[in-house]
Amino acid sequence: MTTRTVLVTGCSEKGAGAALAKEFHSRGHRVFATARSVSALESLAVLGINSIRLDVIAKDSIEAAVEEVTKITGGRLDILVNNAAIFSLMPFADTKLEDARQVFEANVFGVLAVTQAFLPLLMKAGGTGVVANVSSISAEMCPPWQGVYSASKAALTALGHTMRIEFAPLGVR
């Protein structure tokens, strides 16, 4: 088995990101688990998983994470899992515009910023780099009180389709 280097965003305890980080780690891969707060990563750090503070909507935080991963790996990343997200449960008529913007900042623009920042490292994976975006069935179902969340995940799904096409010539899937 080839050891891969994996970065997972949004790894706060008991969430899907933490579960993904543990699974990659259990398969022998070098994992970088990220969250806005390093204290949210303590249960992963004790397992030997690299813990990095990463706020996907803060440029300086993204740059610091890229710098740390570059320093540890020599500038290569095999897999980027964009999992960090903000969930919103609010009737459409009562949704504050600023709250909706925050959801899109994390769920759409954060993915764009993180992926762009780590793309040079993924391209150094020798044609085997992977970007995996965690979307939601809500992007298709659009349940009540989840309009903003559903719209953000639909936008993420569309971005993912574009990434697949545009990154293929770069050796990134």
Automatic annotation (TrEMBL):
<keyword id="KW-0560">Oxidoreductase</keyword>
<dbReference type="GO" id="GO:0005811">
    <property type="term" value="C:lipid droplet"/>
</dbReference>
<dbReference type="InterPro" id="IPR002347">
    <property type="entry name" value="SDR_fam"/>
</dbReference>
<dbReference type="GO" id="GO:0005783">
    <property type="term" value="C:endoplasmic reticulum"/>
</dbReference>
<dbReference type="Pfam" id="PF00106">
    <property type="entry name" value="adh_short"/>
</dbReference>
<dbReference type="GO" id="GO:0019433">
    <property type="term" value="P:triglyceride catabolic process"/>
</dbReference>
<dbReference type="InterPro" id="IPR036291">
    <property type="entry name" value="NAD(P)-bd_dom_sf"/>
</dbReference>
<dbReference type="GO" id="GO:0000140">
    <property type="term" value="F:acylglycerone-phosphate reductase (NADP+) activity"/>
</dbReference>
<comment type="similarity">
    <text>Belongs to the short-chain dehydrogenases/reductases (SDR) family.</text>
</comment>
<dbReference type="GO" id="GO:0004806">
    <property type="term" value="F:triacylglycerol lipase activity"/>
</dbReference>
<protein>
    <submittedName>
        <fullName>Short-chain dehydrogenase/reductase</fullName>
    </submittedName>
</protein>
<dbReference type="InterPro" id="IPR020904">
    <property type="entry name" value="Sc_DH/Rdtase_CS"/>
</dbReference>
<keyword id="KW-0521">NADP</keyword>
<dbReference type="GO" id="GO:0006654">
    <property type="term" value="P:phosphatidic acid biosynthetic process"/>
</dbReference>
